[in-house]
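re: that complex we talked abt at group meeting.

here r the seqs, copy pasted straight from the sheet so there may be weird spacing, ignore it
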Amino acid sequence: MDFEKLFVFLTIGVSVSAIYAVSATGLVVTYVTSGVFNFAHGAIGMFLAFTYWELSVNRGWPVPVALAVTLLVIAPAIGVALDVLVMRRLVQGASVATKLVVTLALLVVFQGGAILIWGIRLRTLPELFPGHDYSVFSLVITWHQTVTVLAAASVAFGLRTLFKRTRLGVAMRAVVDNPELCSVKGISANVVTATSWALGASLAGLAAILIAPGLNLEVNTLSLLVVSAYAAAVVGRLQSLPATFVGALILGVSQQLAVGYLPTSNEWLANLRPALPFVLLFVALLLRSEHRLPERLKTHAEPAPPRVRTTLVVGALVVAAAVPVSGWLSPSNLLIGSRGFLFACIVLSLVLLTGLSGQVSLMQMSFVGLGAVLAGKLPPSFPFPVTLAIAGVVTGLVGIVVALPAVRLRGIYLALSTLAFAILMDNIVFGNRNVLGGGTTLRVERPSLFGLDLSSERSLFVVLAIVAVVFAHVFLAVRRSRFGRLLTAMRDAPNACQTLGMNVTRAKLQVFFLSALLAGVAGVFFGGLQSRVGQLDFLYFRSLTVLLVATIFGITSVSGAFLGAAFFVVLPELTRHADSSGGQAIQPLVIGLLAIATARRQEGVAGRIRALLRPILRRVPAFRPVAGRPSRDIDLRDEPATVTTEEVIPVGAGR
Amino acid sequence: AGAAGAAGAAGGPAAPAATACSPSAATSPGVTQREVKTASIVTDSGPLPGATEGSYRGAAAYFAMVNSQGGVCGRKLTLLKGDDGLDPARARGEFLRLQPQVLGFVGAFSVADSGYIDLIEKTKIPYASLTVDPSGRKLPTVWPKRTEDKVSTGPYVYLKKEHPDVTKTAVLYADVGAVKANLDGTVKAIQKAGFQLVEPPIAVGVADPDYTGTVRNLQDKGVDFVFIFSFEVNMHVRFNRNMKQQHYEPKIKAANIAFNDRFSQLLGKDGDGWENVDAYLPFLDPAEKARSKAVNDFVTWNQRLFPGQQMDLFNVSGWGAAAYFVEALQKAGGDVNRASILTALSQLPKYDDGGVGVPFDPHTGEPTRCFTMARHEGGVWKRSYPASGLECGLGEILKYK
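got the structure back, here u go
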């Protein structure tokens, strides 16, 4: 064994670990002090690193002054502003999905803002103490790297002391658990949460400023590097700073040992190496023991499902309208429409999983991709319904594989496990030439269905309209069913369901299967619509966009899915004529700000529109309430009830 | 040394003279008696905003130059822009939107072009540009053709001649699909030139926080020729920084890297010593403007139309495609339609990026043996070989699949 080589790679691993540790520590601090897993943490850091560059490089301020102003003035100001303007209003007491969406929205807002201010040009950020280094054996280590390691250790140790030994630290943690009790004790929850967010923003800035000299200043890379650090944070159970530090060490060292020792000759293994942080994330999530603490969950304020007759009428109208409309639209507009219907299908598959059953998925586009790839791989001689069935069922089974470990997880941990899966599929499946037949994309034949040739944009448009309507009916049928009610109950009170003898595990597996199956079926049409599919189509952040759009327009309803899909395909058309950095920033800013504006309303924009239309719809027979049925089913209230349940934890029920 | 003058490099006029002919009535989309409309679909928004917008700018600059001389056959040339947002689905929509309005596509260049490859085939529209998706490169209406299975060993033979003692080689590549698809040829050419890979090509994650481990691996294996294959300059810059930090100085550091001036801007003199194996240096070395009118026109018109822009290989690609398309328009004469343009495109004997690139046969799509080398010295790229024109006498065309 070459011990020098081992030492060298361990040392490099420690250095890389420090980068992950600083990032993950900030995440954990924010989570501990606010209860929010901040997906925007990296983006806030990126924004602050650009700010530091602006001051120190572009404006020539001395480094210590620029550093102090960035980390001690601007970062806390951003943190306090986020708390006052966004978090306090939207996040306190909100569901995991809402919290997740708000931070995802902040991520794209900060990215859009950075592009708006600094453009897209790559920049370098000088190291601290440039030109200073020393050698350990034959490995050269810079002062900057050393400072990063020391900063990571100091931050972890210092924060642990803060939380364990100081009144402020204890108050920070206490406010998350019970703000009302804290106020009784004379602790101002507002002051404490503002301090927490200020601290979190400063740590994000510190991490980015330490990382940026190695990575260079680039909006996407800096914003998303923190995703690799999630594993470290999960090892620390999002609570323990020392354990997070250990997680970062495991992550950094294992990654470097893979560089030093993993063979490069095998493409599967070569693809696995960059995916290592997400393998570790997944393993860390699996090994995490589930704490079944009493939960305080907010149910979705949602309208009752429309009656079967109503949905049949609306569905028939949509399909009937699609036929003549398809004759009026140009091929490009037909494609926009087809993409809209398809996106509605994808969103509906997510609405079933997240909106109805509360299982947050960040990998819906991976299921779509799997369906598309399977369609490309299956022999063209197969009848299309057979291809559709095989692709759907196989994707559904993969959904079960994802769900098997995930049944132990809930909330943010479930979301992270699906994110890890999505990134693994990006690297190992969609980026693999063996899967894609040796090229970068895979050909998927356009289907012919029951003798109907779908090679024209017009026929595909009509068929996709039908498919979208079928998806909507499937979703509504599930919602009306006993199974749908079980899913809703599972979403709102999983522990209570188990206590009442319901098989929550089986329900989770079933809903994952069904959601993945629907996404896989949508994927077959996706492949047919585009003719070629590749890694670019199913990158993990596209799944985040699906979730954001679904949330803006209503994560609980069919109308939300259709409106969201329309918005998604029309927005690029509306911003077409905007050029320059401003134009490039518009889309993320619009999506992000809309998501923040609507995050707290589970019914989203669709809910508002329904409320506005209710007086009119009451006059239409098909939409009129059925006599003798409870009004809850028809939900004619202007403001649907928002029910807060304290989960029932019966005494002696296994506790 | 077998040097031969390239069209542009020899100093000949790059811009076509206004042609005397009478434009006939319009018989094709995008054509009137006063105007020819074309389009370019590039990546302007999305995850990599502005990534290939240079392609549009380059083509627009060439059209502006031609228009300043009266256009082609009295017709002004117009270029519409499509933005694929790095999303193949959107690329497809843009194709469908623009296709009915234009005579052809010019200078479209994006990894999202996989979204409309089948539509090029179906609509039979003239497509004067290289498709990034290899499946589009042999379609009948796509010009120039490009083979996917042949590569020139010339630049690597040159490097071997310069460094006969160097054998131990490592090829690193960015772990993204488009890079992997084009990797095999380069690897085979390097091996054919006499270099030995110490291990199979090494995938490097573009978002890896540190490349020191990989650098250390190469040091331990005694690698003295490092080749980096990536379309993103950030990887080169970061790798160079880690190499410097470890005082690792292989005898040859080469890459397809001089496709914009970011490398020089980001590294300055720290980037000295890198060799560039692509032919996209003309606009980076100010001395080239004096050597070639074509290069001078390229730089002048690109800056005139889009002042302050950062030019890159996509500008060259767009400029070259536009020059090729204009040549076809001239050949088609007054009666311009899709069929006549396709006929004209199929008869053009040479593709040379409007005089700023290396000429090759657009029919066979085979790579040329001609090349130039550039070296990063004093913080900027400078032509290192040959002194002028192109080297066409070294190496061979290697079939590698």
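couple things i noticed - Chain B touches chain A through 66 residues (CB under 8 Å). Residues 1-14 of chain B have pLDDT under 50 and may be disordered.
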